[in-house]
C-alpha cells in the first residue's frame, strides 16, 4: 500500500511542478508543445529502445500477457464500438479507446510493481505489449485516418516504420531477439536521453492543466466518464475474471495482473493526442480522472488480494 501512495506522490509532485510552470509562463507559450515533441520524437523512443533491448522476450508468451491483452482488447473494444455507434469520429474514438485500456506501466507501473508486487520486472509484459503492439496500431490508425500526416497511400502504409515510438520499440525488440549487447559508449547517452521522457511528459501534462476545467464537465463529458470507468473499474474486473476463471491464476500471479490492469491511463496518451492535435482535452481529462480514481482502487486491490 505504501508503494501505491509513493508512486502517486512522485507523479503528483512532477505534474504540480508542470502546472506551476504553466501558470507562471516560465517556459513561454510554446513550452508545453516543445516538451511534448521532445518526449514523442527523441526521449520516448530512446527510453523504449534501451528498455526493450534488454528485456526478456519469452515473458511475452506468459499467461499474464494473455490476460493483459484480452482485458485491454475488451475495454478498448467496448469504447470503440460505442464511439462508432455514436459517431464520435476516428480520432476521438481512438484516443478514448487508448484512455480505456492503455495503462501507465512506466512511471507509475514500475514503482508500484517494485514496492507492491516486489519485482519491478513484473510490469514488463504490459510495457512490451503496449509499446510493441497497442501504440503502433493506434498511431497508425490516426495517421491513416488523415488525423496525422497526409501523403500517398504507400507513404501511409509505411507509417509504422516512420513513427518514432514504433521505431524505438521495434528496434529494441530486434536487438533483444538477436541477443546483441549494446556497447556502453552507445547505451549510456541513449539512457541519458531516455531518462528525459517521463519527466518531460509529466511536466507537459501539468502545464496543460493550467486554465483547463475539471474533468468530466465539458463537451467531452460522456467520453471522459466512459473511458475513465472502463479503465479504472472495467479493466481490473475483466482481468480478475479472466485470470481466475480462464487461466486459473491465484495468489501472487493474480495480484500481479489485477494491479497492473488497475493502473490509470498513461500520460503517453496525452503526448500522442498533442502530437496529432486531436482529442487533447479528452486525453487530459480522462488521464486525470482515472489517476484520481485508481488510488482507492489500487489500495483496495492490494488489500483484498495481497
Structure in words:
The chain is mostly helical. The chain has a single domain, classed as Na+/H+ antiporter like fold, CATH 1.20.1530.20. The chain has 15 helices and no strands. The radius of gyration is 18 Å and the shape is globular. The termini are close together.
What's this model, at a glance?
This protein is mainly α. The chain has helices at residues 2-24, 31-53, 63-86, 90-101, 109-115, 124-144, 153-157, 159-162, 164-178, 184-194, 197-209, 221-246, 252-261, 268-276, 280-305.
Topology (elements, then pairings):
Blueprint: H1 2-24, H2 31-53, H3 63-86, H4 90-101, H5 109-115, H6 124-144, H7 153-157, H8 159-162, H9 164-178, H10 184-194, H11 197-209, H12 221-246, H13 252-261, H14 268-276, H15 280-305
Q: In CATH's first tier, which class applies? A: Mainly Alpha
Q: What is the mean predicted local confidence, pLDDT?
A: 85
List low-pLDDT spans.
none
Assign the CATH architecture.
Up-down Bundle
Q: Helical residue percent?
A: over 70%
Please summarize the sheet with the most strands. none
Rg on CA atoms, Å: 18 Å
* Tally of domains: 1
Provide the structure class: mainly alpha
Tell me the series of helices and strands, N- to C-terminal.
HHHHHHHHHHHHHHH
Structure annotation, total helices: 15
Count the E strands: 0
Percent strand equals under 5%
**CATH topology annotation:** Na+/H+ antiporter like fold
Shape: globular
What separation lies between the terminal Cα atoms? 9 Å
Q: What features would you highlight for this structure?
A:
306 residues; mainly alpha; Na+/H+ antiporter like fold; globular
Amino acid at each position: 500500500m505504501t508503494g501505491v501512495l509513493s508512486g502517486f506522490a512522485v507523479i503528483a509532485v512532477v505534474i504540480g511542478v508542470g502546472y506551476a510552470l504553466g501558470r507562471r509562463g516560465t517556459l513561454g507559450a510554446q513550452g508545453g508543445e516543445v516538451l511534448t515533441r521532445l518526449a514523442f520524437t527523441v526521449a520516448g523512443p530512446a527510453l523504449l529502445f534501451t528498455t526493450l533491448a534488454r528485456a526478456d522476450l519469452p515473458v511475452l508468451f506468459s499467461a499474464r500477457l494473455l490476460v493483459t491483452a484480452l482485458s485491454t482488447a475488451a475495454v478498448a473494444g467496448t469504447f470503440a464500438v460505442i464511439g462508432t455507434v455514436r459517431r464520435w469520429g476516428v480520432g476521438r474514438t481512438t484516443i478514448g479507446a487508448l484512455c480505456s485500456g492503455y495503462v501507465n506501466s512506466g512511471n507509475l507501473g514500475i514503482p508500484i510493481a517494485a514496492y507492491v508486487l516486489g519485482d519491478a520486472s513484473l510490469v514488463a509484459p504490459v510495457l512490451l505489449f503496449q509499446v510493441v503492439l497497442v501504440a503502433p496500431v493506434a498511431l497508425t490508425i490516426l495517421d491513416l485516418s488523415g488525423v496525422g500526416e497526409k501523403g500517398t497511400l504507400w507513404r501511409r502504409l509505411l507509417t509504422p516504420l516512420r513513427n518514432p515510438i514504433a521505431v524505438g520499440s521495434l528496434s529494441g525488440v530486434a536487438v533483444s531477439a538477436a541477443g546483441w549487447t549494446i556497447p556502453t559508449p552507445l547505451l549510456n547517452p541513449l539512457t541519458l536521453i531516455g531518462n528525459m521522457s517521463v519527466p518531460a511528459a509529466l511536466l507537459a501534462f501539468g502545464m496543460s492543466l493550467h486554465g483547463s476545467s475539471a474533468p468530466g464537465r465539458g463537451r467531452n463529458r460522456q467520453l471522459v466518464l466512459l473511458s475513465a470507468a472502463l479503465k479504472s473499474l472495467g479493466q481490473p474486473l475483466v482481468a480478475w475474471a479472466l485470470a481466475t476463471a480462464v487461466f486459473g491464476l491465484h495468489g501472487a500471479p493474480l495480484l500481479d495482473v489485477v494491479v497492473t490492469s488497475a493502473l490509470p491511463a498513461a500520460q503517453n496518451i496525452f503526448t500522442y493526442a498533442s502530437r496529432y492535435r486531436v482529442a487533447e482535452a479528452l486525453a487530459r481529462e480522462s488521464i486525470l480522472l482515472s489517476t484520481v480514481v485508481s488510488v482507492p482502487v489500487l489500495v483496495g486491490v492490494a488489500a483484498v488480494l495481497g
